[in-house]
Amino acid sequence: xxxxxxxxxxxxxxxxxxxxxxxxxxxxxxxxxxxxxxxxxxxxxxxxxxxxxxxxxxxxxxxxxxxxxxxxxxxxxxxxxxxxxxxxxxxxxxxxxxxxxxxxxxxxxxxxxxxxxxxxxxxxxxxxxxxxxxxxxxxxxxxxxxxxxxxxxxxxxxxxxxxxxxxxxxxxxxxxxxxxxxxxxxxxxxxxxxxxxxxxxxxxxxxxxxxxxxxxxxxxxxxxxxxxxxxxxxxxxxxxxxxxxxxxxxxxxxxxxxxxxxxxxxxxxx
Amino acid sequence: xxxxxxxxxxxxxxxxxxxxxxxxxxxxxxxxxxxxxxxxxxxxxxxxxxxxxxxxxxxxxxxxxxxxxxxxxxxxxxxxxxxxxxxxxxxxxxxxxxxxxxxxxxxxxxxxxxxxxxxxxxxxxxxxxxxxxxxxxxxxxxxxxxxxxxxxxxxxxxxxxxxxxxxxxxxxxxxxxxxxxxxxxxxxxxxxxxxxxxxxxxxxxxxxxxxxxxxxxxxxxxxxxxxxxxxxxxxxxxxxxxxx
Lengths: 270, 244
Hints:
Oligomer: heterodimer
Radius of gyration of chain B: 22 Å
Largest interface: A-B, 28 and 23 residues
Helix content of chain B: over 70%
CATH architecture of the domain at 1-73 and 188-253 in chain A: 3-Layer(aba) Sandwich
Number of strands of chain B: 0
Largest sheet of chain B: none
């Protein structure tokens, strides 16, 4: 299997007054073409930073990320990004949001409309195609964001805690939808979460990270076949893997309060 | 709500009548003011004065906003522009536009130019700060979302920055219009040959309280009308906003 995304010794430091804070320390990681990996870790472990670097939104202080063997220099439509805060354009309807990237790709009006409609229906927002984001629930907003990312046909999806703000029930439904879409069109997915259960349920490999400095801690292989089912989620095998990931995440050297504060400050300033 | 508003207005007029009937203050009664207003309306004086004031306001306001929006965008988008322009904007903001009138009259004569200029300044200063604030407070996630979908700087500006800062711009315009209207009336009190402010100033010389009242009410009604029109435009253009 060829590597789709390669992190090569990627480090990122923030200046914090006179000192600096290492968000990510020499991360090296390969994600195979068509693979679904999840990234978990305590706050301050640099998981969001890693996603932003792969997306081309943040330049690493040192090291490089390769996508299809080419160094990432900035964002590109082959890498779709889904943000925790949905990031829908509030002045555009669902349809116009989904068409946004297609318009930038200079698709004809007819093609834009057809493609947008296809993905709007796929995420079950058909009835709300001409609604503004303000009337949508959190889950619907995120489904719209997913449709918008899919519409430009990226080969990679980078998802930064996409379901973090959703209630538990909606979250489980969204997980199944994302897996269903992934099994139809094998895109490479890198999915950041703080939920161990979610990390194990979705991934082929769970990347566990540690904080202060943010770094790779352990990679846990999820040896369960796809499609994943509810029965699997409740199986002893799942529980066993979940326990391993849990221990890797929660029984690390605990992050100092200062490190947690750094992460919080960084989030707020975003 | 509307019913309560009507009750309030009727109550206010009744109170005014009562105060005049009491006889201790030398104010014209609502009826006297109404009669004067009809007289002034019939002779066309009221319309001429109102149009003279409106013309100055709209001219100065439109010029001010037309310059403020691009300058505000420039300040929000380019650090260099912000560094160069902001000191002047913040400095002139602290000077009441009326304080510029003596200087404007000395350098621009006593025609329309100094008045329009002062109104332009008032409208420009409030709108430019609002536009700049709008650009600065655009959610960075939206900019990132556009970038990952393939947008370059020009597209981000046109399709994200402009619509996202629209609510701020419209609020700035409303504040600017209020400032412009306040300024025109004051400017006419100081130096003018026409306008509602000028009419009041003349009426003051003849102790013509009814005319002063008519002018004051006309100023209030026109200002309120313009503000409501802008508010309607604002609601229309920013319907997408989540309101609490």
